[in-house]
Structures are given as structure tokens and as C-alpha cells.
Amino acid sequence: MMKKITQKKSNKKQKRRIIKVICLILAVLITSGGMYLGFGIFKQVEGFSKERLVSDESSVLCTTDGEEWFSVARGGVQKNVSYNDIPQVMIDAVVAAEDSRFFEHNGFDVPRIVKALLGNIAAGGITSGGSTITQQLIKKSYYPDEEQTIERKIGEIILSIEATSQTTKEEVLELYLNKIYFGYGPQTIGLYAASKYYFDKSVQNLTLPEAALLAGTLNSPNRYDPFRNLDLAQERRDKILDLMEMHGYISKEECEATKAIPVENTLKSNPVSTSGQYQAYADKVIREVQETTGYDPYETPMRIYTYIDTDVQKELDSIANGESYDFQDSRIQVGAVIQESTTGRIVGVLSGRDYTPLGTTYAYASKTGARYGQKNQPGSSLKPLIAYAAAFEFLDYSTAHYVHDVPYEYSNGFVPSNWNGRKYNGDISISNALSNSWNAAALQTFSEVITGKDCNGNDVGDGIGIDGATEYLESLGFDMEDEAVDIGYAIGAWRKGVTPESEAGAYAVIANGGTYIEPHTVQKIELLSTGEVIEIDQQYQEDKTQALSEESAYMIRDIMTNYVKSGTGTYRLLNLGYQIGAKTGTSNHSGDKSQVANPKLAGHSKDAWLSAYSPDYTWSVWTGYSGEDQKDGYYIKSNRDTNNISAMIAKFLHQDGVKNSYSSMPSGLVKASCVSGIYPYVSAGDGVPSDRVVSGLFKKGNTPSGSASGASLSNLASFTAQMTDSKLQVNFSEYEPKSMTEDATPTKTYKVGGDSYTLPYLGNINQIYGKVVYKVDITDASGKVVHSQTLSSASGTIDYTLAAGTYTVTGYYAFESGNGTSNKISQTVTVEDTTPASYTRLSVTENSATYQITVPQGTSITASLNGATQSLQANGTITFSELTANTSYNVTFTQTLANGQTVTLGTDTFTTSAPSTPQVDPTVPTTPVQ
To answer: Where is the segment annotated Disordered (predicted)?
Structure first.
């Protein structure tokens, strides 16, 4: 027994020791925890500042005149309102709903805390804080993202008491209402934003049902947003009205009458589904500020002065939402940018149809890797800049230059075709190449810019290479980060593509005398917290670069404005009399079904462009489909939307005419004429056909030289001429090359990709006088040219009847037009007269006899009488006189032929008459040539 008692005592002592140790440990833990908690709370409250309670206002976008047109908040407008602007009904509703003893406690309401504590104990955790309005303000300002903890709660209480001691109740309520959420999303932050969001009205004009609704959302903003949960919002609003009645703010009658008003009757249309006024332009401004300054207008309050033209932006918004334009289908998208031609200042942005705030834009794209904006392949829309302006700039070509629209073998044997199929035009003017948008000509010209050689192997200048071409495109403002330039870029085969903003910026270079200024929307930024002003536009103007020489810019502008003036179809729509230059473009999906997102797309149009400029504005319009719609098989069926929208923009911008004018022709240019298709340029001399003389603008260092007043022809190897069946037949050796005799426009054959193409070729100076012909001159024995004839073939019959005689027939080559001949070969041809020689006695008198003689050409006839002779070389009469009357005589007639042979024609016998009696014997016959 004693042993058991001793054991029990020992156990009790051991238990006491254990309890002491536990108590000691607990004491240490409590002390340590308290010290830690106290230190944590101290760190939280030591930096209390009244300024920290003030809500940052939204950044404000305004015009250059300072007129505000947009406030920047993440989905809404954050603007602080003063207590005096808040209607009493709103104050009563919030106090009744959130903190009925607000004007009585010191920022910490013990009954509310006790009630919340009992609820938390019953729930086994912190489920509510019993926070006063002051505590909620502190939480929003100091603990916006922290979980509820005892440490945080104690700090919140201490800071609330401190805030109450340093501010008035009115100030606290004002700060609170400017900072708290009133619904789902950031567009409801602050009373000002919420009033706009739900009712589209100013805070001062809030009514009882509206105030009760707003106060009701504060308990659970997401849950009681009427645009998300209308029934719950109605129920909550009515509960707030009951609380207002209970606390004596409204009468029972007012309460019931207000409950009878449906919440939906107080709301405007759901703002979540629509963007704000000028949203597309506002988002461009916000993104531009973020990327160029590093400041975020959502985080850093600022006043942003912009170049928006609200009239222009309204027009673009009207087009985008279908009010002023009827699109060809509901899915087609559109993007457009309008900027001033000489400043780079963007005045209007069309980001897309059904555009949502900070959504995908088809007008521009990020330059810093941010994920927004869709780039698209430009098709032919950049040909003027990439191919021809570059040729003016780097090869010193003239606007009178002829380019080669001949097939070009691209990569892996691929030969791009023109839009009309495998049809090429040979040598053509740059204006023809551009206005008709021939692909092959652009490829060949860009190849010349890069390589310095043309398709015929001729040197045309110093090529700039791929690196030079890339730098050139960068100088025009194009983002080449993910690009790899090759010849195909001339016709739109870019890896990533371009945007309307980048096209507008590049084309403004032409309108602006070659000067590039980066497109931008912002004039300057004023940071509201410090007053610092950042001069954005001033920097852009200072950073402008000369992307093209004044001469090159003037030359490409001259061509573009001229073909718009004289153009038909699309360009006719832009011919408003304001020197507008423009270029269309279309890109196509691959014809290989395995290479497209949907087999339906194969070979069809993908993008449609039209970029244009005037002395005042430059604008670019794109239409096409989103990537998702392309997967569904949507493709461009017509460029109608692009063309019509661009024309609408042109007419709207210039409805009052133009304010500016282009710069005058630079002193480095001269106007001159040259022979078409010949390079280096040659002046036209005498005899050059008018259709081979072209005029244009030339850089002073590359004007026409020499004079094409003659041209060499191949030697004539042989020529024959002979009479056959009384006709003169001639034969030439055939001219080589034979093609020069077949057409006035010489040709050349190109073999590319296994195919052969014979196309007009003007590059041979020996062909400037048109086609080669065969010439024949006939000269008689006296040296007189009696006939000349041109033959189109190497042999033929002369269309001229030669009289009997000997002639010199000369053959040679000549141009159909112009001077110059080949060597000449002459042949002698004798023509025999087939008319028979004859004589007829006309009369006999007592002392004379007269004969009529017919003499064939080339011969002579001699009459002999008693040793006396008379001869004739042509038809005529012979008279023998001083004869004796009544005497018989014999007259012998002899013909001498052309070859000298003689032929006796016959003898005529007659007797003279008796004296004074004339004798005529009419029976004497005519003697023909035997």
C-alpha cells in the first residue's frame, strides 16, 4: 500500500512538471507570437499617409486643343468626384447598406466587430470582417490583394482609427466611393464610372432607385451586377431600400413606390457588348503610349494630347458598324488608317468590325512583340515603292524608262504569272506596268535593283543587294524583324506582312517629298502626378529621315497621279481632281490545297488593299478575313469593299477641297525625250518614228545622250532581177534576223521554266525605225529613177510596166520608217519592145514622098532612097523631097535592133506625079516587120 501511495505522489509530481513545461512553452510561444504579430502590425501602420487613400484618376485623352474625348481605365472611366457632387440619396443608401453608424464611430465599430467575431467562431474561420466604410477604404488602399488574417485585421483597425483622426467623415466617404467596385469588372470602379456604366449619367443626377442599386452592389459587386444577375440585383436593391426606410432615410411610401420600378427600366443598354465612342482610336493611343514611353495610361494617370479628328473618326466608326456602308457579307473584316501626309499624325483609325476594347485590330500591329494586331500580305499594293521608286532611287531610271514584263523564274522552278494568266507584255512603260499591275514587270525591276543586271544580262547600275533592299524597306517604316527579303516581296510574298498603318506611313513618303515620319497619334503627354510633359510629336518630327530623294519621290508621284487621272475602274473612283496617287493590291491563297487552312481557299483571293495619298492625307484600307474565318473557308470574292471604302474616305477627307500642295519639281530633274526601250538613254534624231519617242523626267546625271539618227542594217548578200513573161522579177537574200522583217515591234524569245515566250523587245537600237523591208529602185538609160517599190518579202514581182529599153535595177534593205540602208546591188535589165515595126506611104507628089513610120522601143528604122538615108528612133514620119516628077523610085526600110542587128523590112516602089499633078496611090500596103 505504501508503495502505491508513493508511486501516486511521484506521478503527480511528474504531471506537474509536464504542465509547467507546457505552460512555459506556451508562454514563450505566446510572447514570441505577440512580438511577431506586434512587429508585423507596426510595420503595416508606420507609414500611414492620407494621400495613399486617394484614388488615381483615369488618364484622359484629349484633342490638341485640350478638349477631352476619352478617359482611360481598364474597361471604364475612373474619375474622382467630390463629396459636394454626390447627391444625399446616394450617401444615405451607402451608409444604410454598409455602415449605419458611420458618422458616429471613430473608424472602428465594436458592435459590428463582435457580431462578425461570433459569426466567425460559429463558422470555424474568418468569413466576415464586420468592416466599417473606413476599414473598407483602408483595405482597398493598403491590402487590395491580401487574404484576411488576424494581423491584417488588426492593422486595418489601427489604420482606420488613424484615418478618422486625420480626415473628416465626408472625406472618407468621398475617398471610399471613388475607389470601390460597383459591379463586375474594372469599368465599375468608382462612383463616376459606375454611373456612366449603368445609367450613362453624371453622379449629380442619380435618383433613389439608382442609388439603391449602386449601394446594393457593394456587398458583392460581381454577384449583384444587374447586367450579369438581374434578379439578384433587383432583390438586393429592394433590401437596400428596406434598410433606408429602417434607418429613416426614406418613408415607407417612397420605399414601396421605388420597389415597384424594375431595375432594367433604370439601365441603359448593356455596355459590355459595345465599345466606347472612338474606342478604336483610343486603343491605338493607349498602345502607342505603352510601347513608346514605357508608361501605362492605366497605371499612371496622364493627360494625353492626340491628333484625333473626331469627324473623321465618326465616319470610320460609321463604316465599321455598318451604318454608312453595306459590306458584302457579315464576316468580312476591315482595317484602315488615315494620317496627315506631311506630319505622320494619324487622324483616324478603323480597327475592325464589331471591335471590342483592346481587341484584335486590323489597322496596325505591335512593334514590340505584344500580341495584338493582324498583319497581312500586301499583294501588289507596294509595287510602286518596292520596285519602281527603288529603281528611280538606286538605278537613276527615268519615268520614260521601259521595263521588262517577261517571265521570271522564282524559286524551285516557279514562274509567277500576271493576273491574266501566263500572258506577258514584253517591254512596256513603267506607267503601263503600274496602272495594270503586271507582276512580271515588278519582279524583273526589283531584281534589277538588287542585282544591277536586267533580264537580258545588261548592266543597269550598281545593285543594292538583299541587305540594301531590307534597309530600304526599313527606311520606309516597315517592320522587317521576322522578314527575309527576296524578289517576291515586290509582288507581296512577305513572310509576315504589313498593316494599313505601315502602308499609309510608307506612301506618305511619296507625298512628303521623300521624308519619312513615323505614324503616330500623340502630340504630347502630361503626367498628372508630377506635371512632367513628354513631347512625343516633337521627337517624331526631329527624328524624320529622308527615305527617298526628292527626285525619286517626285517621279513616282508623277506616274501614280497621272494614271489615277486617266484610269478607269477602281482608279476612276479616286479621280476627284486633287492629284491623288493610289495603288491596289490583292494576295492569293496557295493553289495547293494541302498548303491552305481549308481546301475551299485554294487559289482564291486572301487580302484586298488600296492605299492612296493626296497633298493633305494618306490612307490605307485592307479587307479580308480573320484566321478563324479562313479556317471556315471564307475568302475574298470581290475587292468591292476595299475600293468603295477607300473612295468614301477620299471623298470625305476632301469634301472641302485640299489645303496643301505637293512640292514643286526638284532642281535635280529635267524633262526630256528619248527613244523608248533603249538603255542607256538615247535622244531621238531625224527620222525616228514618233511612236518610238517618249518623254519623261530624268535625273540630271542620267539624261539622254547621243542621237539615234541612223541605224545599221545587215549586208545584202545577193540580189537578182530579170524579165519573166514581160514582168520584172527580183530576189533578195533573206534578212537576218528574219523577225525584224515580220513586225514593226521587234521581238525576243525567252525560255523560262521549260516554256518559250516570244515577246516585244525594244532594246536593240538597230530596230528603232520599225521593221526591215526590201527596196527596189529602177533607173532608165538616162539615169532617171522611173520607179521605186517596197517589198515585205525577199522575192516578188515589181508592180510596174517597163517600156522597152535598158534599165538599172538596184536592190537593198531599208527600215520601213527612218533613215539608213544596207549596201546596194544593181542589175542591168533590157526590155524588148514587142510592137512590130512598120511603114506606110502617106503621100507622093511630083517632087516628094512621105512615110509614116512605127518604131519599136529600143530600136531604130532607116529609110534609103537612091543612096539618101533617114533614120527614126521613135514613131514619126520620113519625107524624101527634091524628087523628079513622073519618075519611079524604090525606098528600102531597115530596122536596127537593140542588140545592133539589122533587119530589112522591105522595099516600096512609087512614081512621082506629072508636073503639077499630085500622085497618091492609096493602095500601097503597110509592110509589117518580118
So the answer is: 910-930
